[in-house]
Amino acid sequence: MNSPAASRPTAFTAILRGLGRRCPSCGVGGSFAGYLKIAGTCDHCGEPLGHIRADDFPPYLTIAIVGHIVVPLVLMGERFLAPPMWLTLGVALPVTVILTLGLLPRVKGGIVGLMWSLRLRGDETQ
Ligand SMILES: [Zn+2]
């Protein structure tokens, strides 16, 4: 029988499970109780997750990721296609909103997975 420390997944595994909105410990249960609310405990293994506070890092990281996707595409579109402004905004703004709303909970799950693997709570300065 493995000890709890021996069966604890690696940080990489915990991040991947978090990106899939799964529990970083077991990978089976969900880690979210809503769109962005972390569940108090895993509904499969009972691992406590609700105490982990990712704070503003998931939105910062999501903005960086979406910005690095949308801005180069807009600039390349302007350079090579020169579409009218209404078309640029009509495509770029919905793509930005959809990417942001789609990535934010997954990025948050990945951050929570990383924090869980490092045994961080998010309130270490208190
Ligand atoms: Zn679990």
Helix content: 40-55%
Q: Mean pLDDT score, rounded?
A: 92
| Number of discrete helical segments | 3
Rounded to the nearest angstrom, the radius of gyration is 18 Å
Write up what this structure looks like.
By secondary structure, the protein is mainly alpha-helical. It has one domain (11-117). 52% of the residues lie in helices and 0% in strands. It has helices at 11-19, 57-80, 85-117. α1 packs across α3. It is elongated, with a radius of gyration of 18 Å. The model has no long low-confidence stretch (mean pLDDT 92). It binds zinc ion.
Which features characterize this protein?
single chain, mainly alpha, 3 helices
Question: Brief overview, please?
Answer:
This protein is mostly helical and 126 residues long. 52% of the residues lie in helices and 0% in strands.
Summarize the helices and strands and which ones pair or pack:
Blueprint: H1 11-19, H2 57-80, H3 85-117
Helix pairs in contact: 1-3, 2-3
